[in-house]
Amino acid sequence: MLTDHQLQHFRTFGFVTLRKLFTPEEVEILREEYESELDHVYADQPFKGETRYWTMMLHPRTPLYASLLEDERFCGVAEQLYGDDVIGIGTDANRYVGDTRWHPDHRADPSADCFGVKFAFYLDPVDAESGALRLIPGSHRREFHDQLHGSLNSLELDVADVPAYVCRSEPGDVVAFDMRCWHASSGGAAGRRMCTCVYYNNPKGEVEEAATRVRAVNSKETPAHFGRAEQSMYPLEWLRNPSGSPKRGRWLRRMAELGYFELPAVP
Q1: How many C-alpha atoms does 99 have within 13 Å on its Cβ side?
Q2: CA dihedral 37, 38, 39, 40 (to 10 degrees)
Q3: Is 87 helix (H, G, I), strand (E, B) or coil?
Q4: What backbone torsions phi and psi does residue 260 show, to the nearest 5 degrees?
Q5: Whole-prediction pTM
Q6: pLDDT per residue as tens digits for the range 252-262
Q7: Measured between alpha carbons, how far is 13 from 20 in angstroms, rounded to an integer?
Q8: I want to staple 107 with a disulfide (CB 3.0 to 4.6 A). Which of 69, 113, 140, 171 is the partner?
Q9: What angle do CA 21, 243, 64 make, to 5 degrees?
Q10: Matching CATH number, 4-258, of 2.60.120.620, 1.10.10.10, 3.40.50.1460, 2.60.40.1180
């Protein structure tokens, strides 16, 4: 759970850094599962440092990653931020190449997009020169967020020249940020390893629900965007919820209502 100070920091600036959230032993397991799963998913296309690789990490092959959405270190914070009915959306792994341009994951207009929190963690040390996450404080607030939409491109600034906070990170650290925040990275080597856990606010009312349905439809195209059109966004094993987790069961029912997937038939 966030302290009162951390909660105020998140609500004011749109992010907070959680130091040493993972133990050294967990970091090693995360690295092992990351490498084995990326190798499995892209077995036909070994990494050459030219294209970003991505995959969802909810498969039984990656048990630690698959457990993170229901880990209190993550879902407890998400519930603190957005209520007990927050929805766990997914955990993924990314192998990046080059800089990441300035962008928000979601728009700040609640009629145009849903909102939530992303927990980002790197598997290697990163700083300003090696691809650390950069965030523009306060850019989750609609007026500032929309102003950046209108001005960042026209300013034609390099990523590193935009005034921002650099989230220097060691393995085990996690940065939680509002997905409406503008963020980027600069100077990272090809192949830098970053993973995320994502939670969305449970939409209230027709306007928020309609925006979330659009996001649900678009999410189905993510595997194809990364050259994995044959891959399902959500593994069948995760959708079946074999442990009978009440929390995951609630997420699954709500996500099915919103159009993310159809739940598998009960055997």
Answers
A1: 14
A2: 50
A3: strand
A4: -70, -35
A5: 0.97
A6: 999 999 999 99
A7: 21
A8: 113
A9: 30
A10: 2.60.120.620
